[in-house]
Input
Amino acid sequence: MEIVDNQYNSDPMRFLSPDIRTLQPYVPGEQSKNEYILKLNTNENPYPPSPQVAKAIQQLISNSADCLRLYPDPDAKLLRAKIAQQQKVDIDQIFVGNGSDEVLAFIYKAFFNHPSKSILYPDISYSFYPVYKQFYGLNAIAIPVDVNFQIQPQDYDQENCGIIIANPNAPTGIALELTQIEEILKANPNSVVVIDEAYVDFGAQSAVKLIPHYDNLVVCQTTSKSRSLAGLRVGFAIAQTHLINALDRVKNCFNSFPVDQIAIAAAAASFEDQSYFEKCCQQVIEDREHLIHELEQLGFQVLPSKANFIFVHHPTAEAKQLAQQLKHQNILVRYFDKPRINGYLRISIGTLHNNTRLVNTLSTILKE
Ligand SMILES: *Cc1c(COP(=O)(O)O)cnc(C)c1O
Output
């Protein structure tokens, strides 16, 4: 757009840097405070975090008068040590940030900035990937997933300056095998391959065990989904030390303290309570399989999911209309008005009670 910078121009956009004027920011799913609303639209965990989390926060505040007066540990060593222990890697192989969205922003800056080559990511994937591409002014090729929404590893055997793939993928829930990820890693020894494992704890295989064998692999995870800590904002990357050091360089040019004192203590406590974490994940997996079965009874086609959400299509009911009708009944699900996926709904797995309410409501809507 043409913007004339003179005193008669009242367009508020005139204050913005030119590249920011044309950005299309990420649009998060609706957050509602209404307690009657059933939120199945942003893949939050239906269960609360481990009780150890609240204890750790209370202890931190009551035991140390200095805990908020002083800056936190810029290296978040306590938290990184707990994550390293759980992931069976070295503390120098862990980077933590303010949500994995921020970690991804640092990853793009550290590894993907190239004047002429393109980043590769699937055409159907997490919508933040193209947002960061645009934000940093980079080039990218969106590689089409196949007709069954499967990622084909051989499509990633072409020139690039970095690859990012969500595994399981969002919003489809479909997971790759580790052998397929290895195929991509082997074909790209000179670029960084990022595997975004936001949903890996709900049944997919983690690529963390490949880290010793590949100097170009970065695995990204978050406490937002499987650890019920979306409100805390803690995400992390796991990779060989040379890649973690690169992320540290970027971080220390942007914000030395991305993870605050409370988040460090609270997330560390979550990693200490492994049995609670495993129980919650197992429950979500069981409830997912049950919900899939019930929706299939209603005529829905459900993509095979290894995540805490499912991606569903109904042959006779329009997805956009279904989402609106559910909203009228106080149930939020995610509809994407985008080519290839505008016939689908993404539905987060709730508690058994939540899922029953969803199925009953859908059943009534479909009968009308
Ligand atoms: C939710 C999500 C994230 C972001 O997680 P935060 O840690 O909450 O920022 C990253 N990648 C994918 C694919 C996600 O679905």
